[in-house]
Design brief:
Mean pLDDT: 85
Radius of gyration: 29 Å
Strand order of the largest sheet: 1-2
Protein name: ZBED4 protein
Largest sheet: 2 strands, parallel
GO molecular function: protein dimerization activity
Shape: elongated
Number of domains: 3
Number of helices: 17
Pfam families: Dimer_Tnp_hAT (PF05699)
InterPro entries: HATC_C_dom, RNaseH-like_sf, ZnF_BED_domain_contain
Domain HAT C-terminal dimerisation: 296-371
């Protein structure tokens, strides 16, 4: 329903500050990739506490030993059956990717009983103490909401309107973690500080604010009364500006203005009566920006499972200007991950990596890859 005449260059999402700077210099709007920012926040926090780093080192060595030792693998499988544990392999992390470290620790905790016994029977030098298991549990508990947030914001249907709500959720969760965990206070303090230094500015950035206001699942619910009133007025002004720059010129009817048609005779022709009747008839008053914004904000907030763009598709007749503004902000994803997935494809059978791939074919392949799943097409 976003027709080609209405398309325009919008907001660019990037994980590269240099690209963002270049776009700004070219007067193009850009935002930082939320998932990349979360990676930086969590990465700083993990590095801030030596105990956590040591624990990760021990976990890596245990997983590596099991992968390399047939005897350890066999013993682990026996113990999994004996203790009715899930029969799954241990996971080896990639140190530069914190989410893989999180999943590695989660798997170790799941297999804790088997890991302890296997480490002793196979004479591993690395043994995890009771206190270390507690800290490991706390680390996983702390990283779990960030892993969930990263996956949520990297989903295909995620919008820029979810960024401010997610920041509030993560900040609240960090406060709760101080009471729910043990031995990782330094890491939690680093998480809290990094959230402020890297994400606090987004809470007042007009692009995120408008996206949140125009997301029918949130609207002004996350802002104070004073903020809500200020942002509402800002939204009205933004809508007024949009209306003033998007007024369509009258479509030419093929003749010069003021020239009579060949069948008309002054004011007495029959068709002039129709014009007069329509002018005098009841016409719906054009909704002004303030009326649209107020009517929208007075509606009930939708459930989180609702699709905001589907909502605005249904509202485009009632609030055309506001729906166009909503598409501008909600059409922007919060992360570059969906784009990375789009371009991640096998090179065989017409992949994007072909040396002779033309731009025309490239555009068609992109179109098909995005839209075929919508009609449940099976490759």
């Amino acid at each position: 329903w976003v027709t080609s005449p209405g398309l325009q260059i919008g907001i660019t999402v990037t994980d590269n500050p240099s690209i963002g700077k270049t776009l700004s210099e070219g007067e193009r709007a850009s935002v930082q990739c939320f998932s990349h920012t979360v990676d930086l926040v969590v990465g700083e926090a993990i590095k801030s506490q030596r105990m956590v780093q040591n624990l990760l080192s021990i976990a890596r060595k245990i997983c590596e030993r099991v992968h390399r030792s047939p005897k350890a693998k066999e013993k682990l499988a026996e113990l999994q059956k004996e203790y009715a544990l899930p029969q799954r392999h241990l996971l080896q992390d990639v140190p530069s990717r914190w989410n893989t470290s999180f999943h590695m620790l989660e798997r170790l905790i799941e297999q804790k009983r088997a890991i302890n016994e296997m480490s002793i029977e196979c004479n591993f030098r690395e043994l995890i103490s009771c206190d270390q298991w507690e800290v490991m549990q706390s680390v996983c508990h702390a990283l779990k909401p960030f892993d969930a947030a990263s996956r949520e914001m990297s989903a295909h249907a995620s919008t820029l309107g979810q960024v401010i709500p997610m920041i509030h959720i993560l900040n609240r969760k960090i406060e709760m973690l101080f009471e729910e965990t043990m031995g990782i206070d330094t890491m939690l303090k680093s998480l809290k500080e990094a959230m402020v230094s890297r994400l606090a500015a987004a809470l007042h950035d007009p692009r995120y604010v408008f996206a949140t206001l125009l997301d029918p699942r949130y609207k002004a619910s996350l802002f104070s009364e004073e903020e809500a009133e200020q942002y509402k007025q800002d939204l009205i002004r933004e809508l007024e500006e949009l209306n003033s720059t998007s007024e369509e010129a009258p479509v030419s009817n093929g003749r010069a203005p003021g020239s009579p048609s060949k069948d008309s005779v002054g004011e007495e022709n029959l068709w002039s009566l129709v014009a007069k009747m329509t002018k005098k008839g009841p016409r719906e008053k054009t909704k002004v920006p303030e009326d649209m914004v107020l009517a929208y904000l007075e509606e009930e907030v939708l459930e989180h499972s609702c699709d905001p763009l589907t909502y605005w598709n249904l509202k485009r007749s009632a609030w055309p200007g506001l729906s166009a503004l909503a598409v501008r902000f909600l059409g922007c994803p919060p992360s570059i991950v969906p784009s990375e997935r789009l371009f991640s494809t096998p090179t065989e059978n017409g992949g994007f990596g072909q040396s002779r791939l033309t731009m025309e074919h490239f555009e068609k392949l992109i179109f098909l890859k995005v839209n075929l799943p919508l009609i449940y097409f099976q490759y």
